[in-house]
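Hi L., both proteins are below.
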Amino acid sequence: MSYSRFALYYLPPDEALAAFGAAWLGWDVAAGRPVPQPALDGIDAVTATPRKYGCHGTLKPPFALADGHTPDDLARAVAHLAASLAPARADGLALGRLGHFLALVPNGDGGGIARVAAACVRGVDAFRAPPDEAELAHRRAAGLSARQERMLATWGYPYVMEEFRFHITLTGRLAPEALDLWNATLRDALPPLPAPFDLDTIALVGERRDGCFELIQRYALTG
């Protein structure tokens, strides 16, 4: 399988949350296949934007591979990175609102998770091809702060390092009047959430020709 872009994700382990996330979004990123969604009016539209990424938390945002590097080179670098990183822990996960979408976010101190994410951004950045002008324009259209602009220039994405906030996206952008409805729907549908929440693996994923991401390899954090 050839991939147009790669990323480093946190993927829930093969337990209740992973099964829920795959069914809720309609895409199983670990298995690389579509999954039937619950019989809920509007769920297909509400989850259309995050569907192709699967149930995940982004650690290193998607990037094209730079010239002179191969996917095998990248995989070896991710394995080396994982062996150097200690796991991170937060008090748990909770359903929350991030702007106009709903996501699972950590409870308590998220410093350890931010540490892992920052290491992922730095650790494989030599493999990242610079974003083209179209991608830069797309990012800037959101209206970036000066610091976010610096992150974009340095790391190819505005919401990393000091701008990073770990989350597992469960909806696309919702109209204000729909937030409460889908928040309640998700609270009824979610399985018990992990408490504490351990981020002890990272996953190398690839974007397929159909635009969906799938797992290439998962690595334990053993540093």
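That was the first. Here is the second:
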Amino acid sequence: MKENIKIAILDMYDGYPNEGMRCIKMLLGEFLAKDGIKGNYDIFDIRGKEELPEIEDYDIYISTGGPGSPIVEGHRWEGRFFNFLDQIKNYNLVNSDKKYIFLICHSFQLAVQHFDLGTVCERRSTSFGVMPIHKVDEDLLFEPLEDPFWAVDSRDFQVIQPREEEFERIGAKILALEKERPHIPLERAIMAIRFSDEIFGVQFHPEADAEGMRRYFLQEDKKLAVIKEHGEEKYNEMIEHLDDPDKIMFTESVIIPRFLETAYQSYQKDLSPAY
């Protein structure tokens, strides 16, 4: 049984102001405050400082969303991040104490490209707001959620055209797709993939907390920016969804907390891994 759980946040924000890091820190703080759980987390600036943890030094990793294009351009930090993903995968093949990683948005898009599971391309228009996500396969992390469930979506890019042979080869599964759009003849984006028992990724933002997001978007400058970019109707709809306990409040309370709990349980000698 592990005495202390060590968690690393892989910061993909490149120094840009964001709400995601606050939300992730809050979820980790709540997890580490539970009775019987001891541990800590550290933050590594992947893009700005090219920092990466040693694979042996941490048990659980959360890799964040981030700004800008996720399409691989050959930066050194990209190669180092891809090597890190391979290290996790290879470590888990030969060790019983697995390393777990949760990939959010930008990190998810990078991983899809690295494992050659689909095409990452720019959307015709930005997807922004509190959106329905449709489950297409069952998974422990999504189990309590309705179909569809709701989550914060904020992206100019998308993952489409899954390469089924690569999914089969590495044992990955598509778990969720974006909202149905019967009036639009475009492929629906992939919103969640289980890359392996220990590697999980989503295209949306399960870390987003309703109270903090509401406070953020009620600021006059943020409100005006959203209305200018997306219209007043979209802004009002988003604020209404933030107040609904069955939408992102519930999603935030389920996905990442279940990921953390499942990873933690796998380190307890008297319990079998949860997957």
